[in-house]
Each structure stands twice: as C-alpha cells, then as structure tokens.
Amino acid sequence: MSAMTKDINAHAQAVITTAQDKNVMIALAESCTGGMVAASLTDIAGSSAVLDRGFVTYSNNAKMDMLGVTGETLDAHGAVSSETAIEMVSGVLKHAPNSNIALSITGIAGPGGGSPDKPVGLVYFGIQSRGKPAQSIKQIFEGDRANIRNNASFFALDLIIKELK
Asked: Beta 122-129 vs 51-56: how paired, if at all?
C-alpha cells in the first residue's frame, strides 16, 4: 500500500467518522476523478450512514442531463471552470434531497487536453452545504494522470472534512 493510498484511506475514515458524529449525509459529482472519492469512502465500513450518492459526470452531456449544468455555462467557461464546478455542486444538492453537503470535481487529468489557459493538472472543486452558497476552489496538481487524480481525490476529502467542521 502506497503512502498516498494510506493517506486517502485515513482521510476517508475521517470524513466518515466526522459526518457520522454530525449526522450529515454527503453527495458527490465527479468528473476527472471518475468516482475515486466515492470509492475511497465506500472502502470504509459504515460509509452507508453518510454517503448518499455519487454522480460520475464525465461528459458535458452527463453534466447537463444529470446535474443541470447549462450549455451556456459550458460554452462560455468550459467544463473545467469555477462556474461549472458551482453548477455541478448545486445540481447534486438538487438531486440529493437527503444530503447536507455536496462536492463536485472537474479538471484535466492529462496527459492530453491541457492548454496554456487550462494546463494539465488544473482542477476545480465545488463545495456546498445545504442552505449556504456554493464555493469553488481552484488547484493545480503536478505529475502524471494517476498522481493528479489521486491528489484531487485527497484534496476533495480534505475539503469535505473542513466543510464538516
């Protein structure tokens, strides 16, 4: 087991424990991580008490169909943008009435797909507690595709822990 795997497991455990203590349900929308955050949570026994649902919305059509991201937002800002992360996280809460916290992830894991404006490793996260405004966080992760996806998953768990506190 790599150090990253241990860290992700420890972070997932912290999310489960903290959410259970606060009686909070969590929902997710993942694009570039392809369900890795949900998988890390479901690796932990007891996750069913806190993980409500997860959407893997990899294509733009999935983002629109499942989460209500608008074509206008995608045309104006692209899938990898603060605006899309915000619409994704808001859409998750709309479709998950029992969830108190939602998180979204959209980014460029590489090796291709980057540009000068949006380099490989660029990831936007949306986080929202029900009844509060959604927030977007921008990160740029280094390394190969696996490293970017692992670091994005770790960062996402960290955001959920902070939102729970």
From this structure: unpaired
What are the pLDDT digits (tens) for 47-69? 999 999 999 999 999 999 999 99
Q: Rounded to an integer, what distance in angstroms lies between the CA atom of residue 29 and that of residue 53? A: 9
Residues 6 and 152 sit within 8 Å (Cβ to Cβ):
no
Note whether 104 and 79 are within 8 A (CB). no
- Rounded to 10 deg, the angle between the 3-22 and 145-164 helix axes is 20
CB atoms within 10 A of CB 115: 11
pLDDT in tens, 83-119: 999 999 999 999 999 999 999 999 999 999 999 999 9
| The token pair that represents 21 in the structure block | 């203590």
The amino acid present at 130, given as its one-letter code, is R
pTM, rounded to two decimals: 0.95
In the chain, the amino acid numbered 133 is: P
Q: Is residue 105 within 8 Å of residue 35, measured between CB atoms?
A: no
